[in-house]
């Protein structure tokens, strides 16, 4: 048996009859977190985390559906040729892929990103107008060609933008290498 343990057992009665001062208990209580506050703190953090995750999932599902389908998707219109639907899906996937590739480059240049998004929005608006014409006159080859041309312009715009951004980054990297030497 330890000496301290032996001392406590022998003098237990003397030790238990004195109560500590109220100021000591107050200092002890201040240092100890209240369980209710701690529980509330963790519950509020968990609720915020759940809200953020749920919001992110909803936003992701809405934007990925809209990005893949291009909003008002042609496949939802009966009577269209499968080739036209396939063409729209093809160009939409290329456009989305090119947009994803430009994101890292545009992160450092928000003005350029805003300008690109304005142009993409303008082309999407033209595409919507063409789709409306296509609903009215589904067999008109000129309308179909205009739609395909619009997709090609959007892809060309994104490819050119990506080339310029890559060349600019390569020049910056080359300049940094020359400055380091």
Helix content: over 70%
Largest sheet: none
Average pLDDT across residues? 76
Strand content: under 5%
Could you say which overall geometry the principal axes of the C-alpha atoms support? elongated
Number of helices: 7
Explained architecture:
This protein has 181 residues and is mostly helical. The protein has 2 domains: 20-69; 74-180. It has helices at residues 3-10, 12-16, 22-31, 35-69, 82-106, 110-136, 141-180. Helix 6 packs antiparallel against helix 7 (141-180). The termini are far apart. The relative contact order is 0.07.
Characteristics:
181 residues; mainly alpha
Gist?
The protein is mainly alpha-helical and 181 residues long. It is built from seven helices and no strands.
Secondary structure: elements and pairs:
Blueprint (H helix, E strand, L loop, with lengths): L2 H8 L1 H5 L5 H10 L3 H35 L12 H25 L3 H27 L4 H40 L1
């Amino acid at each position: 048996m330890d000496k301290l343990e032996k001392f406590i057992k022998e003098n237990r009665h003397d030790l238990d009859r004195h109560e500590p001062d109220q100021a000591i208990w107050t200092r002890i209580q201040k240092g100890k977190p209240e369980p209710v506050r701690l529980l509330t703190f963790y519950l509020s953090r968990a609720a915020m985390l759940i809200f953020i995750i749920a919001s992110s999932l909803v936003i992701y599902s809405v934007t990925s559906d809209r990005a893949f389908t291009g909003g008002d998707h042609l496949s939802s219109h009966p009577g269209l040729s499968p080739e036209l639907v396939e063409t729209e899906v093809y160009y939409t996937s290329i456009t989305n892929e090119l947009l994803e590739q430009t994101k890292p480059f545009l992160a450092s240049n928000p003005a350029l990103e805003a300008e690109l998004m304005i142009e993409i929005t303008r082309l999407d608006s033209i595409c919507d107008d063409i789709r409306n014409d296509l609903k009215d006159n589904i067999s008109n080859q000129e309308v179909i060609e205009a739609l395909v041309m619009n997709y090609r312009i959007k892809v060309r715009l994104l490819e050119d933008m990506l080339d310029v951004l890559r060349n600019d980054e390569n020049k910056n990297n080359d300049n940094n290498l020359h400055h380091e030497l």
